[in-house]
Prior knowledge:
The chain is α/β, with parallel strands linked by helices and 412 residues long.
Amino acid sequence: MKIKNIDLKIIKDSREQDTLEAVFETEKGSFVSSVPAGKSTGAHEAKTIRPQLALEKFSNIKNALLEKDYLNQKEFDQFLIGLDGTIDKSNLGANLILVLSMAFARAFSAELGVALYKYIEKILEDDFKIDLEKTFPRPMFNVINGGSHAKNKLGFQEFQIIPMVGEYAMALSMGQEFYRKLGIVLENKFGKEKVSLGDEAGYSCPFENNEEALDMLYELIFESKYPMRIGLDMAATQYYKDGKYILGEKEYSKIEISDYYKSLISRYEIVSVEDPFEEEDFDSFGEITKDLKELCLNSCGGEQKMDEILVIADDLTTTNSARLAKAIEEKSGNAILIKLTQIGSVFETLEVIAKAYKNNWKIVVSHRSGETMDDFIADLAYGARAWGIKAGAPGKIERMAKYNRLLEIASN
């Protein structure tokens, strides 16, 4: 495929920060992509550069990109990575490489005459020989924001509700209804003036601790008889310091924080935990994965039964093939969070997904806290048959863009 022209410009993300938008022109039309940015980032993520610098870097490589005739996604992405010439993409920047890679994926899927999700599915099946299950990703709604995504006392970063139903439209409707009900409950408890929205559209309130937030979620699920489970993103690196985990006024050792997590999982019938330990602690990830497997074999409570409790690696693995390989070898989890921005190209992201599947790990596709209206991750989540998708609370328009795209796919 020949690219007739590429335009790159700076736009604003959901936090009013600068980010990049690319427009590809081919014989099939114009194809637009934009990249988000995270506030809570792992140390091993590919490096980004300032958007203004990205414009300058792009001007130096634009002609080289337009000269070639590309056969597939792998060739385009590898050409970009070769132009960058660094291990961590610190020259051109993962944000510049990714926005071009995503736009190319859209353009090439049109060249093949297939939807973007079909294109992603085709790469996984043809290039990586993955036999994809015919499942639909569960929405994992981040309805209460804490940690670095909100200004409150909550140590955990995300408090999610996960509808455990087979039909996506029902799951989305249920999540939206729960979100509205929760808003009313929180306003009645704290007062309307003390209820705001965090970076990912989840509610931020003056909770005293994590348990207070969990109590409210659990009680509302129980009272409304929703077929739902709770998920948590601890983002534990954010509250790890000098060998201790610090939540509020209390310090925990590795063993103590693990016991604390397991007590919460049992008490609130939690189905997934993400980044329960700091980003270098493969051993503790492995230990809690083993413990939770045994716990689930004995009793995965609630009406919506689970074969296992997900231990999701995010900062530990950063959508990086080498980090995932180590996590797999040490059994440090059973699921990986997939963020395109962490590795910086579409093909490398699919390579990580394939590695996870070949080792019986589940995947959860995720947005970032600073989002755009781009809905690429919805096609990625369905095309890769992810266990779940995180796109925030079903509130702000940049979050709903992803959920609505999945609804469109489900309706086809």
